[in-house]
Amino acid sequence: MPASLPNALDAFWMPFTANRRFKAEPRLLARAEGTRYYTPEGREVLDGTSGLWCVNAGHTRAPIVEAISRQAAELDFAPTFNLGHPKAFELAARLAALLPGDLDHVFFANSGSEAVDSALKIALAYQRARGKGEKTRLIGRERAYHGVGFGGISVGGIVKNRMHFGGMLTGVDHLPHTHDLARNAFSRGQPEHGAELADALERLVGLHDASTIAAVIVEPMSGSAGVLVPPKGYLERLRALCDKHDILLIFDEVITGFGRLGAPFAADHFGVRPDMITFAKGVTNAAVPLGGVGVSKAIYDLMLERADSPVELFHGYTYSGHPLACAAGLAALDIYRDEDLFGRAAALSAYWEDAVHSLADARHVIDVRNLGLTAGIELAPREGAAGARATDAFHACFDQGLLVRVTGDIIALSPPLIVEKAEIDRIVETIRAVLTRLD
Ligand code: PXG
Does residue 217 share a domain with residue 165? Predict the structure, then answer.
């Protein structure tokens, strides 16, 4: 490191990070393989979070590495505005086949945030194209995370992600979140209580009128907010209300897509059909950034038919359908299929559920919840210091060789779908040991 750089960590303004704390006490990852990260000193860290909910097939999988390097040598970049390259069409077709029902068309972006903005814009453009241009309102939900674009934070519901950034989009409203510890603590799988919270959409319709509402967007299971599992019947009710009022329903499956719940998408797991699905993360196993929107045949066909100019959607990114991302995506889909990783996640989920619920009596724990290969372990907050206990747990787990995610006072777990039972045991034992020692 050159002497002129007193702190070589200084220049990188790290996202969603307490930069001063990190740079005083850095934790670095240098290498990864399968379910493990390795620090620069060679210390092994078990990945309990699939990176950031994204490395579903485990790290540095050889077929993906090879596909990316082959693609980089063959075709590094090609525009997809008025031109095309084979792998973008191939990946879109593979995704259309994997997406549920008539979600037969795929729009590509580069991240979950861009996927969400794309879906919201498609919803508005679609309503306009069908002669319902006054349907401009977007409905999100409290505690939702839809990325960090202005569209995503407007419909999102995480206070800190919104409060610093001004007025955001106008004409947005929110449903109540579904997290209810008083009625649903320690639920296994979907909680019993709260389907009626979907009826809040009726109240928003009563307030704004359905003729002004374009779309509702929800995470079918909230990930970032700390694994908030939808109550039984809730998503079904939301779908029925959207149908009743001619409102599009968008599922943000950036986390739940690609096997996290033991099915290709949460829409499959819950048996509820949205009009659009946003995806990112697992689509390439996170090896190259890629996001996108699965769009229903009805939306796509109408947009093409009714367009008032030859270009039907004035939206897209330089890197929509980037060749490296498409190559990585195709290789990732092959792994998911060949290793039946979604089926593997489904088969492991009962073991996972028992394992994480064994923490119900661990120190500080006020709730354990789970679905598929996810879990939220909620801790009692320290008096006057919300979030501090879970942050300390994060650091202690890392030092004990386990990577977890924390949000507020919730530990969120989402191991790679290739996780072994012995590794699940290790995740749970490490967390118990850490909590036992924690103030
Ligand atoms: N929608 C959902 C449901 C997400 O979870 C995004 C959109 C945005 O994706 P991008 O690719 O723009 O980051 C996300 C991202 C965490 C964590 O620790 C979660 C996300 C990102 C970073 C951290 O919970 N989710």
Answer: yes
Query: Domain check: are 39 and 79 in the same one?
Result: no
Ligand 1 pocket test: which of 146, 224, 394 has the largest number of ligand atoms within 8 Å of its C-beta? 224
List the residue whose alpha carbon is closest to atom 21 of ligand 1: 52
Q: Which atom of ligand 1 is nearest to the CA of 113?
A: 12
Question: Mutate which of 145, 153, 317 to test ligand 1's pocket (most atoms within 8 Å of Cβ)?
Answer: 145
Quick: pLDDT tens for 1-56: 444 555 699 999 999 999 999 999 999 999 999 999 999 999 999 999 999 999 99
| 76 lies in some domain | yes
The last residue of a domain, from among 338, 359, 387: 338
> Do residue 51 and residue 112 come from a single domain?
no
Question: Which residues contact ligand 1 via a Cβ below 6 A?
Answer: 52-53, 111-113, 116, 145-147, 219, 223-224, 252, 254-255, 280, 291, 405, 407
Please tell me the residue having the least CA distance from ligand 1 atom 14.
Answer: 147
Average pLDDT over residues 301-319: 95
pLDDT value of residue 5? 52
The answer to whether residues 331 and 350 belong to one domain is: no
Which atom of ligand 1 sits closest to the CA of residue 111? Answer: 11
Domain match, 166 and 122 both: yes
Residue 422: give the domain boundaries: 19-57+340-437
Residues 328 and 349 grouped into a single domain: no
Q: What is the 3-state secondary structure (H, E, C) of the chain?
A: CCCCCCCCCCCCCCCCCCHHHHHHCCCCCCEEEECEEECCCCCEEEECCHHHHCCCCCECCHHHHHHHHHHHHHCCCCCCCCCCCHHHHHHHHHHHHHCCCCCCEEEEECCHHHHHHHHHHHHHHHHHHCCCCCCCEEEEECCCCCCCCHHHHHHCCCHHHHHCCCCCCCCEEEECCCCCHHHHCCCCCCCCCCHHHHHHHHHHHHHHCHHHEEEEEECCCECCCCCECCCCCHHHHHHHHHHHCCCEEEEECCCCCCCCCCCCCHHHHHCCCCCEEEECHHHHCCCCCCEEEEECHHHHHHHHHHCCCCCCCCCCCCCCCCHHHHHHHHHHHHHHHHCCHHHHHHHHHHHHHHHHHHHHHCCCEEEEEEECCEEEEEECCECCECCHHHHHHHHHHHHCCEECEEECCEEEECCCCCCCHHHHHHHHHHHHHHHHHCC
Q: What is the whole-number distance in angstroms between the Cα of residue 252 and the centre of ligand 1? A: 10
Question: Both 263 and 221 in a single domain?
Answer: yes
Averaged pLDDT, 111-134: 98
Please identify, by atom number, the ligand 1 atom nearest to the C-alpha of residue 114.
12
Dist. CA 179 → ligand 1 center (Å): 19
For residues 290 and 391, membership in a common domain is answered with no
Total domains in the chain come to 2
